[in-house]
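agent: user wants the full assembly modeled, not chains individually. Plan: 1) parse entity lines 2) check alphabet per entity 3) run joint structure prediction 4) return tokens. Steps 1-2 passed, four entities, 290 residues total. Proceeding.
--- entities ---
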Amino acid sequence: MAIVSRYTIALHILTWLAFWAEKDEFFPSDRIANSVGTSPVFLRRILGQLAKAGLVLVQHGGTGAGWKLARRPEEISLLDVYEAVVQTPLFELHHSQPNPSCIIGNGIQPALQEIYEDSEEALKRRLAQETIKDLVGSSLEHGKR
Amino acid sequence: MAIVSRYTIALHILTWLAFWAEKDEFFPSDRIANSVGTSPVFLRRILGQLAKAGLVLVQHGGTGAGWKLARRPEEISLLDVYEAVVQTPLFELHHSQPNPSCIIGNGIQPALQEIYEDSEEALKRRLAQETIKDLVGSSLEHGKR
DNA sequence: CTCAAAGTAACCGTAACGGTTACATTGAAT
DNA sequence: ATTCAATGTAACCGTTACGGTTACTTTGAG
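--- prediction returned ---
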């Protein structure tokens, strides 16, 4: 299966917050949900992960409660978001253990582990090159048409 | 979620076949299953995909039926296997459509699409650098210890 | 004290995956 | 032509994870 849509949602949230960042308000999850098109509860779950990773700030209680970016958009890379939201490794090894008395079965897991880690690294390096600021620009550019 | 363990299984199969390739026999799915540690039916499903992609040959009927590599191990890259077995894109977009009347909601999907495709490309480029022959060598190396 | 909003637990429907059983089909060998 | 070892495939199952929802508690600014 693929990288969960949760990652897409997280990027959407941050891009939206970045777009409105100049107002320097806290935005409630309901308002963000209006743009993303999903439920506020689901968003809060994700926002909680982003907060733990230090990407957003939360304000509880009273009027004006909600969320805003903890850093400037150009200081949040897509890799930061990936690591905040995706916890599982990209590749799965065998579910049931391979036969250790088979020459190949015995050594293939560490062999795969190496190349899997390298490949995941290649993906992450690419994600590290892009920031939320880039995404705001690109979204506005595409939205025009 | 992660890239399905099916990919790991496919690599295991091909590595195993490559290891025994010098015998130039067809090997039945039951024997391969003995090394991989999973069911022959599951293996045949995957082997079918590998055959469609031209990576293995199949022999039906009678004694000596089974599977073998269609090319030399150094001519099968891990990307070939990936494309034979994984059909879905790596990243998922929104499940429910974002709000098109929101400036960000309107343009974010094509913006994400671009960076998602680039990132998947980065992953694939890395996989293209490794071959089944490399995997045989690396497995034997790790198995020694 | 009020009240808008976050936090959280519980539950649900859906989908995909790995695994298994069962049966039809193939085709080399004799 | 028969045999039979193996593939091909459909059907089904249990488990897991995900997105979505409801309902309730907690927070804390005003």
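agent: reporting back. Chain B has six helices and two strands. Residues 1, 26, 28-30, 40-41, 44-45, 47-48, 58-67, 95-96 of chain B lie near DNA strand D (CB under 10 Å from a C1').
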